[in-house]
User: Which sequence fits this backbone?
């Protein structure tokens, strides 16, 4: 199978580095262009980048020359974007207008009416929203986004339950890893042996994005789901892996927690048949041991793309409670973008 | 004022050490006897103890000889007990029967019908239960307990709200410090850069003990409060200070979060007038900064006896949400026992 | 190539688990027997083990029944031993006497006159000591050991320098990960946000074992190397990877640090030609960036089998200084045993 | 005794905050002016400051208005400076020229010929260098500096040994707390569960500053001490307290480590008779337990002003080895400046 030539926008940042790390052996996607700021343009990637991945920088990437993030500087079939929200809006639009599909982790277009906010295992049908996009009159360029790093594991863990019983309300406390704040991000003086019980802006996203994810595509529009999510987002001294403590009221609680466990265990991903190269065999794994999942031990399950659930139990206040864990920079960010791209290919939205 | 001669049961353990640390300059209570296991008896305290407090072991205590935990070996006016639950039952009973008041942090008698489960700022009137105790026919010996280290800050933070508006249900996630598990306690391999989302037995205590604390003393019995508490107890890489993320439904939510804040700020401790030497001027402090309180920065406020509250806000699912922080080995254990003893003195229950 | 049937002694412990983890896809060695204590014998491995590896327990291993560590219970070609030193002596001897080669990480036989203390990249020729062993009159059973987890990276980093210039004395401070103490090992209360500047017994091993490793096999005996090593061993809050800060005086310092760097970079492993499946292409890697190597980022280089060196520079007091990093439970323990086994196979010491 | 009116330069930074924290109950020095950047000037201290001390910001200080760092804006008797080196040079000179003594933790003037680099317990006689200063023609203004946060505990630990036996060379590895890098300082992604074995510029200071500290004042000049110090400076995940692993060659090693221990234990601080309010009774404490001192448990001994030594033992390579611990932001920074000011008062160098 011929490869796509892929660009990475924001290639020197932490999300950009994660894209490069995750794509280093990808069977379909080959990184051939690296976009970054004026300051980095013209340098080799090695010179321009403070590499923070644990694997070594791939040698071929290291020697590539970084360019600015302009469509005519990057001769590629499509781009992944790890740009900061502050600058992503204009740049991503420019690429889409120039006919280059943009698969982005930035939040700018997440609530745009014609942009899918997509997790392949949750709402792959939202992909059709792309047909409504007007960025590129020739219809080649478009934008697809993925949700926030808490929303992804939260909604993935809820999806089997939502499908079987409906959800009426959710209360959660998220214990979030420092890698979620990028680099330099959280100062060590704030977090060593400590917890910071507030992350600005996070709780609003957690309340909003799952509504679009679980929404229905009807008449070329998304009708949002509608239930309240009360979130408390805390930063904890963990490197990778957001752990969520969730309590939920269901529309139709079956009165027996075992039936909820069954629903989770029997749930089947809607993209299971596509055999996408990065798709985990079991997107949501329910652990029996009440001590599991734990960030340091289980965030990397299925190469960081599996969401772990644990302690699924009855709640004395609402109906059920559980924990959920997702690798925040893989499942919750760059890895989800790559899955989105694989789905786009499978559905014929990408051209070489 | 003449001093009481005080014994510490379980003196070589972590709770016992905390008693000794906190009592080192106490105006009323002087440690004059140290009880521990057969293995330690006969040694000096210095020899018998793996001291883990950060302040130095007091020199006078260091040279004292440890005895076994038997009433006739310890010539004291009363004892504090930091014994393990596994052995506390018989020993504490023996002291009470021998006419020595026992003020204990162990959990054995917390649900005993005539034993007060007491936090001075919450339910000082429960002290009268002592009059119903039958341990000592002469009426001098008795047992008083304090609650679990999560229940204390949780119930203290809820008390002003309970008084003003009533509470219907509570959902909380507790992020608990490793010192709560004693020494050696939590292995570092389990907790460095990690979270363990389960602490065996903890959630049951969190659901039960506040019911007795908030219960009413009627006809010489406690009528328990009755509302559900759904807890998720997680261990986090923090040394001292349990941080709680709480959501609650109130009996009569005033519809305005500012009124709840006022109720917390205007709440007055029922023991404020007693001027007990360890009592914090402000037992519950509500922070404005949403990043506060944090374990490393605020657990030691008011010498570790103040409970911090923060982020008091409306909940989209129940009525209100907030964070609460308490120093687990001071406010949540030995410090609360000492406050109980001070109240017992003030109420005339202790004799020299 | 036909596989060896391999047993793991101490299979439920942390070193035993590491053997099982590292051997899960080994091309030559297949784990077919699991030995542990009486308490575990008869249970499945899943039941008997508190699995602490981050990868999942292999399904086939999980269902195997654990036996006691007795030669006639384990029908294997040879065994790896991760036994505690307290019990390893008798058991390992029994296996060797029964004709089963023992490749052990335990320290009991490290200084035994006829037992090789071996790291394949350092002293593969010491393998011939086996021929002097008397454990098994039939000559099939024998014992091979690997050194302590600090001695391995220290001696590997010194080897190119030793070969080129000789070494007269070494001073080092080792900053050692908690996994080196096994499980439960280091209590979290001792090490969270802290350093413990003493590890009992460690400094003596660090001074002694490199002397045998760098010794010469002459007349069927090892003539030890002879230079002083002054070590200070500290425990630090790191999960995996011992980092050493080393200063050394050389026999013939060339007066130019660049020549020392060249010697390290041009050094060639004596087993390079054997293409052992686990052998890293570059056993010792010298980093240019003075911030590297770091435990969390580089301990797993080459699957945890590469030793990282950094900051190679002149010393104002002795001749040279550098840092060295080795993954303590892979390069410094189970991984080195597996390399030893691969070398034993290549040299014809193992039989199926 | 009447109080001095004291200004703090760089009052909103981390060193400035530490000055305010340490001076909150000082018997002689009262903070009456707060200098910071243009950006902060005009605001209250509470508004201008991201307070990171664990104690609460003193109420009276909180309401003070911050000014720019100009002598005529700050009506004080002298100033403490916690300014960044980048701007300290001009500002400190301006204050000295305006007749305001400057007691600074900044490094700019540490090697200035007429500026004492002073630790009261080490070289109080260097105070006379002030008489040679030309900053203020009226002779009231001057500058006094204290050394780097590693040099202070290192030189204090060496001083008793230097006095008794002389020192020929030193090799050390410093394991340095994150608070040494200020705020935001070290990113958590760099240091959680990790070690960074390099701190730019640090090792040069460690080699140089002790030479001036241990130098002799002769003919109104300092003749520097002259011996090599080989340092390796690493950052570790510790909040406060630099731990040093030191090996040293002595001029006249007595051949018996007990004699070195005696020299440390019998050493008497040259300022012991002055009874300075912040001076620790025992500036250097030698622990017997080989596990001590440890950063989290002992850095705050004597309010953070005592240097802990441990593991004093013979070295097989040089003569002796030991560990030393100092609280880097108290003993190693602001606390040392305050001690310098107390000595200046006692010697009559400060005027009200």
Assistant:
């Amino acid at each position: 199978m011929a490869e796509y030539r892929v660009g990475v926008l924001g290639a020197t940042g932490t999300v950009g580095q994660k894209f490069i790390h995750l794509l280093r052996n990808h069977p379909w996607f080959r990184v051939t262009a690296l976009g970054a700021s004026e300051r980095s343009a013209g340098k080799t990637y090695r010179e321009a980048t403070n590499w923070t991945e644990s694997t070594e920088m791939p040698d071929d990437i290291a020697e590539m020359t970084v360019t600015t993030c302009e469509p005519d500087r990057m001769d590629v079939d499509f781009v992944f974007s790890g740009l900061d929200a502050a600058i992503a809006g204009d740049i991503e639009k420019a690429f889409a207008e120039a006919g280059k599909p943009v698969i982005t982790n930035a939040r700018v277009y997440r609530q745009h009416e014609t942009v899918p906010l997509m997790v392949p295992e949750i709402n792959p049908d939202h992909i059709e929203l792309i047909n409504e996009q007007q960025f590129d009159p020739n219809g080649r360029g478009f934008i697809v986004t993925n949700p926030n790093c808490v929303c992804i594991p939260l909604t993935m863990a809820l999806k089997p339950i939502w499908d079987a019983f409906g959800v009426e309300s959710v209360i959660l406390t998220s214990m979030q890893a420092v890698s979620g704040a990028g680099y330099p991000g959280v100062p060590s003086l704030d977090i060593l042996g400590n917890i910071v019980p507030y992350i600005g802006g996070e709780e609003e996203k957690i309340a909003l994005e799952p509504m679009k994810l679980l929404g229905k595509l009807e008449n070329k529009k998304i009708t949002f789901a509608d239930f309240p999510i009360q979130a408390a987002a805390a930063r904890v001294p963990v490197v990778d892996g957001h752990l969520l403590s969730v309590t939920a009221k269901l529309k139709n609680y079956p009165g027996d927690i075992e039936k909820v466990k069954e629903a989770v265990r029997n749930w089947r991903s809607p993209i299971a048949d596509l055999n996408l190269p990065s798709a985990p065999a079991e997107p949501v794994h329910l652990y029996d041991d009440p001590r599991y999942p734990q960030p340091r031990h289980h965030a990397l399950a299925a190469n960081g793309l599996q969401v772990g659930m644990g302690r699924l139990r009855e709640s004395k206040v609402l109906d059920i409670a559980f924990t959920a864990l997702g690798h925040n920079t893989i499942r919750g960010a760059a890895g989800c973008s790559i899955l989105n791209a694989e789905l786009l290919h499978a559905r014929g939205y990408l051209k070489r």
Q: What stands out?
A: The interface with chain C takes residues 169-171, 173, 175, 192-198, 207, 228-230, 232, 234, 236-239, 243, 245, 247, 249, 290-291, 293-297, 310-311, 315-318, 321, 323 of chain D (CB under 8 Å). Chain D has a mean pLDDT of 97.
